[in-house]
Amino acid sequence: MRSCCSSRDRDRDRDRISDLPDEILGKILSLVPTKVAVSTSVLSKKWRMNNNNLLAHVDTLSFDESMVVYPNEEAVSGSSDGFLDFLDKTLRNCPTKTIKKFSLSHRGGSFTRSPAVYGWILSALEEEQGCLEEVHLECTRIEVNLERKLLRSNTLVKLTLSREYCLEVDSVYFPALKSLSLLTVEGLDYNNYRRLIKGCPVLEDLIVTDIGADTLDPYPPCCTTHVKSASIKRLVLSVDMPFGGPHNLHSFHELHDLTYVKAPSLVYLDYSGHVFMDYRFLDLDSLAEVRLNLKLWDHHKPIYGDVTNLAAGIRNITTLHLSPDSLEAFHFCCKSMPVFKNLLNLSIEGNKKKGWQVMPLLLNSCPNLHTLVFKGLVHRVTDKCGDACACTPNNKHNKKMKKKKSKVISCLWTCPVKVLEIVEYGGSFQELKQMRHFLGKLECLETVRVGGIDAADNTIFLRANLLSLPIVSSNCNNIHFI
What we know:
The protein is of the alpha/beta class. Helices cover 28% and strands 24% of the residues. The protein has a domain at 344-482. The strands form two sheets. The protein has a 15-stranded parallel beta sheet, sandwiched between helices. Helix 6 runs parallel beside helix 7. It holds the Pfam family F-box. Residues 14-66 form the F-box domain.
């Protein structure tokens, strides 16, 4: 009996972690943030004694200063230096050859601390026998200078730069890089940005944001206004530039004059921003899907911008997603709507503050439309929603408009849509009225799908209301609830 108890006690006291091979321990350490990994050395004698050796088997390093809790705001700046000191000591024990993925997010720190840390990162990038595939860097306060005559890596596949980085390079060569994210990099001027893009010959995914930039920045945001690449297949642009004015280094018109995109291999485009004066979208014959969030300038009168060339540049796409703001931008800022002869799928997002004035013109410009999706049917009632809408403006000319409306041939009658899908249906009187309008005029409908009815008390009632609506199309016999 004693021997059994003694055996159990030995098993309980045994350091099982120490029995694991270094390679396995390295894999375990790679799964957690590196600061946590280093602190876990208390778990094992072997871990504690051979921590430096174990780091040689780690293939992922992740450092995030936001995980550090400071007692007050005053302690943040000084402690950032401590965080970088911790990084410096840790990285000295990490061979650059074994790292596959490196992530760093920090607030800043003094200029004397950064060079050592970023020197290690650049050495890892340029390691001839290295295997570094991913690098993600974010600095939120003090600018970090990345100066290099030649910035290169033969193995890097994914790179993210975010916020306070000043890139100064004579040449860039990333022959394997496929994904690049530039997230409001405030110290990136046009020439260095151009060298960076040019040095990525197989780049496929480009994500760029210019949001909340400093109005006195000597480098105005440039990355979202000029994209030229023969290899890019997926492009995400989000721009929110400073307004411009007497206290800015750049005028409003300088900052919002032209957006240029030339990408013959581009398949997917997601563009978000206020309307520019002009767009040059060239060689986009491969483009299939576009998501637009175009916003009007609230403070600029008269209405500023022109999206005519933007619409013309994407006219061959098959799928289009439009935000509520985009509908108004097309209505006020598009001089002529092109024919979207290849468009099969159109997705519209509704908003009670935004109107549908452009809907009749848009639907008439899609002669082969197959699927029409609405994310919410509620929108602002105007006197220009036309025959695509069932809403009626409340004004003294109401009766005259009704008579005039009855004489107009509805664009829905000639609309070839076969699939109508409503997402986030709420069952209000206005929504039910709009559904009656759609079902009573879309003569080619074959399938109707409605989602969003999830209130237990009203589900049966709301579904019954929809199922009682007359459907003009003989090919559509039912409504499917999703």
